[in-house]
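Model it.
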Amino acid sequence: MTDKGQAGSGRKRTVGRPRRIEAQQIVDVARRIIREEGVEAVSMRRVAKEVGATPMALYHHVRDKDELLLLTLQGMAATFPRPALPADPRDRLLTTAVHMHTILSEVPWVLDVLSLGDLTDKEALWMPEEIIGSAIACGLTPTQALHAYRTIWYVVYGALVFQRADARRAADPERRPFFPTFLTEEDAVALPRMTEMAANWQESKGRYDIAEQLEAVVDGLLRKGRRHASQSPNS
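Modeled.
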């Protein structure tokens, strides 16, 4: 082999174009990280590494982490068909609230993004629109209807958070439960009801019907709103 050949063989290979990445690939990776590790684990650097690109390359598709999280929500609500909504506004409100709980129970990772407070899927906004509009049709003022929606959302969100916690505990057979097993007969004086129900606490969870409880919440909110309206000096 000639010296020229040896020199040629030692040349560095020409660096090609950076690997092209698609916006949907970025979103899919971010969704997987949230689903497996939580929203705190998402970062531009982490996502870039997993798609085989530089963080700078990601900025051609998304402005920052908040926009990336917003993109993870887009289109999720549309994957679930809207239920047939009754004409009666009270029933319409309740049906929408139950549907909201149902779809979020199917994609619980979405709760992590929604918990940030100001990120949502625009295609999911038909649900608060229906709930607020139906509450107004039932006689609530716009402010009361907005408060009613928030109360319903808190119930739905809280139920799903504890549902996820129950699933995590059930997946860890080595974990030793504390409540309610740490209650003893000595606690019956100060905590008679809790002590009495301790033995059936877990069993009662299986009989908990979120639709039934949402119905009670909705009826209470509507009844309270109508009562306040009737007591108003302008009514």
